[in-house]
Design brief:
Length: 263
C-alpha cells in the first residue's frame, strides 16, 4: 500500500489508530467496488484515487485530472457513498476533487486505492493485439440475423465487407435505433472474417473499452505501445462509438487510429 503525507512515527497515537481504521475501510470499499465493476474499469478509474480524509461525515477523495473527476462523479460516487456508509455509519457523503485544486488536509493521512496483488517476480505481460478483442457471441452470425426493411441495406453492406478480401466500404458506419441489429452485424462480420481468413487480426471492442485502454496508456506513459497495438491490426470494429463524444483526447487518438487503418 502506497501512502503519502502519512502520520509520522511518534505522532499522536490516536491519529495513527484513525489512519489504520480509515485504511481498512478504504481497502474494503475498493475491494467491493473492484469486484462489482471489473479489473479493467478499476485500473482505469479508481486505482488513481487517493483518500485524503474524513471531515464531518464526508469522505474526501482526490484524483489527478478533471476528466477523471467528472467520470467518477457521474458513474461511481453514489455507489462509493453506499459502500462507505456500510463500512462507517457516520459517512453521509463523498467528495471527489482534483488534487491540484486543493491542498490535502494536514491532519490526516493520504491513502491510495489498493494495488492488485502480484506474485514475487511477476510482471505484467504485453497482450497480443488479438487478445484485447472482446468475446464474440456465437449466436450473432449472418445466418441468425433477421433481415427486414429497416436493416436490409446495412445487412447487405455488412456481408460485402465480411466476404471481400480487399477493403470495401472503408470505413463502414452502422447507424440506427436500439434493437435493429447493429451489434449483431458487427459480431457477424468478425466471425465471418475470422473463419474465412484466420490469419487476419480482427479486433472488436466497445468505445468504452477503447477509452479505458487509452487512459491507462496515458497514465502509464505507454502511448507508443498503445498506438502500435491498435494500428497494426487488419480490422478494427468499435461498438457504441457515440460513447467517446465530448472526450477530446480520446476522440483525437481514435481519429488518428482510424486514419492509420483507412490509409
Amino acid at each position: 500500500m502506497e501512502k503519502d503525507n502519512a502520520v509520522p512515527v511518534g505522532a499522536d497515537p490516536s491519529k495513527n489508530d484513525q489512519a489504520e481504521v480509515w485504511e481498512a475501510q478504504w481497502n474494503a470499499v475498493c475491494g467491493l467496488l473492484r469486484a462489482e465493476i471489473g479489473e479493467a474499469a478499476y485500473q482505469s478509474w479508481l486505482k488513481p484515487m487517493t483518500m485524503r480524509g474524513i471531515i464531518d461525515g464526508e469522505v474526501r477523495i482526490s484524483v489527478p485530472t478533471r476528466f477523471m473527476r467528472d467520470w467518477i462523479v457521474a458513474h461511481y460516487t453514489e455507489r462509493l457513498q453506499v459502500l462507505w456508509s456500510a463500512e462507517n455509519a457516520e459517512i453521509q457523503s463523498v467528495d471527489v476533487f482534483i488534487q491540484s485544486d486543493r491542498e490535502a488536509p494536514s491532519s490526516g493521512p493520504a491513502i491510495r486505492a489498493p494495488q492488485p496483488q502480484m506474485g514475487v517476480g511477476s510482471r505484467v505481460e504485453e497482450r497480443p493485439a488479438a487478445d484485447i478483442s472482446a468475446p464474440l457471441d456465437r449466436r450473432y452470425d449472418f445466418e441468425h440475423f433477421v433481415v427486414g426493411k429497416p436493416n436490409e441495406f446495412a445487412y447487405a453492406a455488412a456481408r460485402r465487407v465480411a466476404e471481400a478480401l480487399t477493403a470495401q466500404f472503408n470505413p463502414l458506419f452502422l447507424y440506427g435505433g436500439v434493437g435493429l441489429g447493429k451489434t449483431h452485424l458487427m459480431h457477424a462480420i468478425a466471425w465471418h472474417i475470422r473463419k474465412q481468413t484466420p490469419d487476419r487480426t480482427v479486433i472488436y471492442l466497445s468505445a468504452e473499452k477503447f477509452m479505458y485502454r487509452f487512459i491507462r496508456a496515458l497514465r502509464e506513459k505507454n502511448t507508443v505501445d498503445f498506438k502500435d497495438q491498435f494500428r497494426s491490426i487488419d480490422v478494427l470494429m468499435i461498438d457504441d462509438v457515440q460513447f467517446i463524444g465530448g472526450k477530446d483526447s480520446t476522440q483525437e487518438e481514435f481519429f488518428h487510429t482510424f486514419n492509420a487503418l483507412v490509409d
